[in-house]
Amino acid sequence: MEPGTLRITHSLNSVLERWLPEQRLFLKSDRSTRFLRLRPVTQLIALGGIALVFGWSIIASSILVIDAISAGSLRDEARRSQGALEARLTDLSVERDSRAAEAVAAQNRFAVALDQVSRMQSQLLDSEARRRELETGIGVVQTSLQEAVEAHHQAEAKAGGHADEAIAPARTAELQAALDILSSELKQASSQRSQAVQDAEDAKRLAEAVTLERDQIVARNDEILSQVEDAISVSVEPLDDMFRSVGMNPDEVLRTVRRGYSGQGGPLNPIGYSSSGDAEISEREAKAKEILITLDQMNSYRIAVSKMPLAMPVKSAFRYTSPFGRRWGRAHEGIDMAGPVGTPIFATGDGVITFAGWQSGYGNLIKIEHELGTETRYGHLSKIRVKVGQKVSRGSRIGDMGNTGRSTGSHLHYEVRVNGRAVNPMSFIKAAQNVF
Questions:
Q1: 3-class DSSP state for residue 164?
Q2: Phi-psi bin for 142: left (phi > 0), alpha (psi -120 to 50), beta?
Q3: Strand pairing partners for 38?
Q4: How far is Cα of residue 243 from the mean position of the Cα atoms in its chain?
Q5: How many CB atoms lie within 10 A of CB 145?
């Protein structure tokens, strides 16, 4: 060591000796006794290293606690958002059904109004035809009366007017009575015609009001259908993104689910078709059909989610000690979650135990086969609590954490495989926070 460095070290030891006096560590054997000097500078370096390690432990623990709290708050917020969305969908469905019932009632009232208009028009036509008949009859009577009067005058001129004096007044009275009857009938027919015209106008106004009400209800139904369609689309997109994030093809997932849930049945009846056609109704039916298709897609996604390993394998306190990826020049196909020996380990999804025993490198290992081509592995266990062929549910306890196999300490090695390929389990864990 150079003289300048020695002087600096000696001066520093002299300054620090007031607080950190020199210590000696004696090493005694059967033949000799030796000691190590711990100078103040050496003690300061050791204390500084201990302080750095302690500070780093506090900072790392704080980060883990903050991550845990953030994950919990995000999970709660996602659960509340999902609940609010489902409540909104329920409200929209109830409102849609109510509006549909109102539309049916309005359609029925419209049909009744149209029927009334049709009857009024028929009555109006009948009264008009009757009026014309009466006018024709009056014309005939008037013509006959004129002919009779002329014949009477001619007869009087020829016979001197003495023979028919007693007959003429009686015939004139009969003709006048017939004329009075026809005039009365004509007035009555005219009155009925006016009343029929008024009733027809009232029925027409009623039909117009019912038509307006029906159009308003139909417009509101279209608005509700659009809101339901938007809400369902918003619900489907996160599920679609979730499956892509864990390395699964959403279309293949949907096909697999539908193959398992494809039952149909019930009586088949002939369909009645309308010859008039209605483009607006066809458009609404097409939109409703699209909504049903999207609802089926979302329901299929939820069925798939219920069968995937999305839960946490460790529910007690633990620490992530190794991520998924390359480690020490080799592929680490899972994540390590460290905790005390005996910490309960739980199945992350419904499935069947395909392996439960010792395997090189893994130590005590459990393999669970889930649906949709997924498999989970739980390694380094201290105890196995299941048997091959046993069916387990999500959240069932399957073993205890341990230090078996190639392991440097008590921890769980957790793997997720999709169609035989190892994927990052953190993708499933993060996806679970957005679903449950």
A1: coil
A2: alpha
A3: 23
A4: 16
A5: 17
Predicted TM-score of the model (pTM): 0.47
3-state helix, strand, coil in the chain (%, to 5): 60, 15, 20
Q: Which residue has the tokens 């109510």?
A: 98
Report how far residue 375's alpha carbon sits from residue 214's, in angstroms, rounded to the nearest whole number: 56
Q: How many residues does the chain have?
A: 436
**Which tokens sit at 165?**
């004096």
Tell the residue number behind the tokens 């449950």, with chain if given: 436
Q: Is residue 141 packed enough to be buried (19+ CB in 10 Å), middle (13-18) or exposed (0-12)? A: middle
To 5 degrees, how large is the angle CA 222–CA 280–CA 277? 150
Measure the CA–CA gap between 213 and 100, rounded to whole angstroms. 13
> In this predicted model, what pLDDT tens digit does every residue of 231-243 receive, in sequence order?
666 556 666 666 7
Strand ranges for 202-329 from DSSP E: 319-322, 325-327
What are the tokens at 112? 């009744």
Residues 135, 218: contact at Cβ < 8 Å? no
* pLDDT averaged per 10 residues, the chain (length 436): 68 72 70 72 80 86 75 66 73 75 76 74 74 71 69 63 53 67 71 73 76 74 67 63 71 74 55 49 65 69 78 90 79 90 94 94 94 91 95 94 92 91 85 62
Q: Is the dihedral of CA 192, 195, 201, 205 positive or negative?
A: negative
pLDDT at 158: 64
